[in-house]
Amino acid sequence: MPKLPSSSRSAAAGPAQDVPGRTPRNRRLPAHERREQILDAALHEFSERGFGAARMDDIAARAGLSKGGLYAHFGSKDAVFQALMQRMLLPSLLFDDRSPQAPARLSRTSLAAQVDGFLEGAYARLEDDRFIRTLHLLIAEGPRAPEAIAGWRADHLRLLHEQQAGMRRAVESGVMRDSALTEMVHLIHAPILLAAVLKMLQDDTHVSGILPRLRAAHRRLLLELLPPESG
Amino acid sequence: MPKLPSSSRSAAAGPAQDVPGRTPRNRRLPAHERREQILDAALHEFSERGFGAARMDDIAARAGLSKGGLYAHFGSKDAVFQALMQRMLLPSLLFDDRSPQAPARLSRTSLAAQVDGFLEGAYARLEDDRFIRTLHLLIAEGPRAPEAIAGWRADHLRLLHEQQAGMRRAVESGVMRDSALTEMVHLIHAPILLAAVLKMLQDDTHVSGILPRLRAAHRRLLLELLPPESG
Amino acid sequence: MPKLPSSSRSAAAGPAQDVPGRTPRNRRLPAHERREQILDAALHEFSERGFGAARMDDIAARAGLSKGGLYAHFGSKDAVFQALMQRMLLPSLLFDDRSPQAPARLSRTSLAAQVDGFLEGAYARLEDDRFIRTLHLLIAEGPRAPEAIAGWRADHLRLLHEQQAGMRRAVESGVMRDSALTEMVHLIHAPILLAAVLKMLQDDTHVSGILPRLRAAHRRLLLELLPPESG
Amino acid sequence: MPKLPSSSRSAAAGPAQDVPGRTPRNRRLPAHERREQILDAALHEFSERGFGAARMDDIAARAGLSKGGLYAHFGSKDAVFQALMQRMLLPSLLFDDRSPQAPARLSRTSLAAQVDGFLEGAYARLEDDRFIRTLHLLIAEGPRAPEAIAGWRADHLRLLHEQQAGMRRAVESGVMRDSALTEMVHLIHAPILLAAVLKMLQDDTHVSGILPRLRAAHRRLLLELLPPESG
DNA sequence: AATGAATGAGAGTTCATTCAT
DNA sequence: TATGAATGAACTCTCATTCAT
């Protein structure tokens, strides 16, 4: 029986040594750049292995310095995590402000264009590995960083409220129909979250097969329900 | 920067010692029962702390035996996790088969009833702590148990395919309208996943405030798009 | 690093599960037979893995009963070891009394015959796996069982003294020459010990190639030095 | 039956705590020196208790660092053992090259001198505790480190072949007699192995009483058989 | 700022031994 | 006697953190 070293490391996940010293040890980097490199490395390791299983050694190696050097920038593993959460959850990471709102005087054509702009932004973000990793980390380890999460929560609520208000105005001004979607903007975003979770759980080939169809159906949904009744 | 005591244990989760000897050490249980107890305990500990931070001691204590005794039933922490995933994902996790399908000859009334049945089942499950825990664990630690996940994937795909086929038949037979929802059943389920993720991330008071409104809007969405054109 | 299950078990030695339940669980065997079976199993496991690494489970399984059953016969792992040593070191395990001695009136012919008898016995024992295992165990773990070893020591000394006395008489009576070999009988046995140790350390093919040549040279040595000068 | 306390620890060997902090914790030693200290400590512990019963804590303590520090130098207990075997077996363990060979033009006097040199080296090594420990470890735990052993095997065979060839040349050039000893050099070394094994198994007082006599007889054996017939 | 040897508190795992059945 | 679930004390190994250099 081959000796499996420890059991707290997934057999499925490749060892971090496979990507040794991604950054080739640039000495004495400006502190700010180093912090960014470290947080990039931390995002990778945390989302790959989870907070508990990620090792400071691996984060340091991926950031191109030694474990000791890492501690010159962050006082603890938790500090790295908190800082990462802070950076991740800067406004509009999960949602940007391009979701269909209601600028004055909106022709149907421009509504379709706006929907397409929204979808383009949202589904493009799904292709960004960092976005998926971030969301995964948020879901998986969020409860570990309640304060950081609190910031995200507030942000998230504010954005949704703004969008909801915009919807309401759009309906009142007649550029959008009153529908389930304008009643709860959550419904507009739900398919994107679904897609993101699928990317976390299903294999890539299946997801990349489904994504375009999901996007098309999502577009159809929005264009079926958002435009005003007549025209 | 405040120094966190040990850093690898969540500050949010209370220590397991707070609930000592939950099961009062029933000696010599039939192996089958013990396994169930252990998996129950494991679900609790894993979802509370994550796989990495959960301790075999705590799982054992919660299951009412010693750590050594635990190892008589599962050869490793990973094995516990695998078995847990196996057991959890037997009944299709995210969906049951009550989502709106198309029995022959369906009046609009019965479609509404069917929609309500679907929503009732889905949103009731959201109130089940075990469901949320399980889904959280699936998302957070899924990649750790690729084989167990593979089973879930297959299940999930099969169910979706069946539902999609049902939708197609319903459209062809005229009991449902051709819409974004019938084109991609995913869109029907997306709001529920959104709700589940909100439950994981937002505080309970906010979520319980939103949930009924989300459910109402979800219902409205389905009833706006599913029924056939005429009526 | 692939996860190796435990580290205290040699990767080179096959797991004991490979030979599961060598004896097919005969229930309620006479105590004496069971003890013998257990000691056989223990000899195998101890010599294969060493005392420390041998497991009571494996010994029990090899003996055809459960761990609990084993403890009905021996109170502890040490007790098994002690009993094994006792049994192993019954007189003349390592040496028998056929080494060349001096019966009255010994022609040179019969000396050669006696040498051959001695060699036959000694080198035949080298082919006996149990002999090699026993000697290996004696060397490897002897210090663990000082009392058992004490018995062997006494035996060993007594036998050598007898042989030495026999040699002296043979020289005095003129049937053997006074030589290094008669001065120290140890020298007569040394090549056999060498062969045994080689069997423990070198690979079988090499040893089986060397053994006949060693035996021939050993024979030549004895016949060169033991017979009286003239004739 | 007297119950032995823990049973997996030899009653004969004193606990390592009796010699606490043998090395007074020199912090930050160069890695190379530390490795040597660790291997020294490992030789002691392994040979005292056997591989299985030796504890990493004790090895670390004896080497003057903490258990964790030990693992910075060797990845596992097995790795320590392998490295130890490697180091131990570099200089040919059992034989050096001073065994009687045949330099050109060798008078009988110088042959005797050469024999004495050989015996001096061999029996001096028997007084070296490290030699006995090493040999004991090789016999007792050799099968655990097949790769390390492979190196030793090759070495051992090479040395014997060279000696054998030297013997053949010595016989052909007439400086040695053709005898059992020149036919198989093993016979020359056998008494030394016997002495070593006796040191492992018999008590010191007995062995130190026998050793000089064995050495004398060994000398006599060589001088009786090696010199050429004439004189 | 950076390095990496060293620490030390666990955590996972093993296994001799016990004991209810 | 026999079974095998259960115990608990070790033991190996890990890793966040410290600190001499």
From TrEMBL, chains A, B, C, D:
Protein name stated in the entry: TetR/AcrR family transcriptional regulator
Region (Disordered): 1-31
Composition-biased stretches (Low complexity): 1-16
Keyword DNA repair: no
Cross-referenced SUPFAM superfamilies: Homeodomain-like, Tetracyclin repressor-like, C-terminal domain
Segments traversing the membrane: none
Gene3D superfamilies with a match to the protein in the record: Tetracycline Repressor, domain 2
Record domain HTH tetR-type: where: 32-92
InterPro entries, sorted: Homeodomain-like_sf (IPR009057), HTH-type_TetR-like_transc_reg (IPR050109), HTH_TetR (IPR001647), Tet_transcr_reg_TetR-rel_C_sf (IPR036271)
Residue spans binding DNA: 55-74
Keywords: DNA-binding
